[in-house]
Design goal:
By secondary structure, the protein is mostly helical. The protein has helices at 2-22, 54-59, 73-84, 88-91, 136-145, 156-163, 174-186. The structure holds heme C.
């Protein structure tokens, strides 16, 4: 009886080891590892763009973020800018390896280093080269309606992210747009002339 028990245990042990060596169970090909964890709706490996897979891949990539969203003020703005709407994916220039240059946080990029060959304005509070003379309402208005303080309409990629497919910045609550404005007004002004 004792001998038989030991035999069974050994058998179980052997099955476990055997499984891990021979990969029994559902077979996983390397193609399947792409990831439903990217929130791409599980469209298979081809839909996964990766963190450096261009605008579509980078803008909506989940990043490290606080477990609870701050409820209001510039702290909520920071959370929305850095973790939800990812403004820096376009407004912070990248080096030649594609890594954002943090010393130019939100300071804009010219056509050469900007996303998809588009120049992106400096949105730090620098008065001369950024948006230091915009009021918080001006910034919130632009995010929701796409209209600049000079009543011009915003163009290109910024227009696209405001409109969204189907949801864009235009759908955010006014308080959130104002929180983003408060945060942008609190970041260090950086002199960087883009246009
Ligand atoms: C997909 C790229 C992209 C993303 C993401 C993006 N922007 Fe922009 N943004 C642009 C481009 C390009 C322009 C210039 C549009 C134009 O010239 O009409 C622009 C223009 C602006 C302007 C107008 C500045 C000026 O001097 O005219 C503001 C303000 C702005 N963006 C704020 C934001 C904020 C805040 C976010 C995040 C909530 C954000 N943007 C996210 C690409 C982007």
């Amino acid at each position: 009886m004792v001998v038989r028990m030991r035999g069974l245990r050994f058998l179980a042990f052997a099955v476990v080891i055997g499984c891990s060596l021979a990969a029994c169970g559902p077979s996983v090909s390397s193609d399947d590892t792409g990831g439903d964890d990217t929130g791409d709706g599980g469209n298979g490996p081809d839909a996964y763009q990766g963190p450096r897979g261009g605008i579509a891949g980078t803008v909506w990539m989940p990043m490290h973020s606080p477990t609870q969203a701050p409820k209001g003020g510039a702290e909520r703005g920071r959370y929305l800018v850095d973790h939800v709407s990812l403004c820096g994916d376009c407004h912070t220039p990248r080096n030649r390896f594609g890594v954002p240059k943090q010393s130019f946080y939100m300071a804009g990029a010219d056509e050469k280093s900007g996303p998809l060959g588009e120049a992106v304005p400096n949105i730090t509070p620098d008065k001369e080269t950024g948006i230091g003379d915009w009021k918080r309402d001006d910034i919130a208005e632009l995010l929701i309606s796409g209209t600049k303080p000079d009543l011009d309409n915003v163009q290109g990629l910024m227009y696209e992210v405001i409109q969204g497919t189907p949801h864009g910045y235009k759908d955010m609550r006014k308080e959130d747009a104002l929180a983003i404005a408060d945060y942008l007004k609190s970041i260090p002004p950086i002199k960087n002339k883009v246009k």
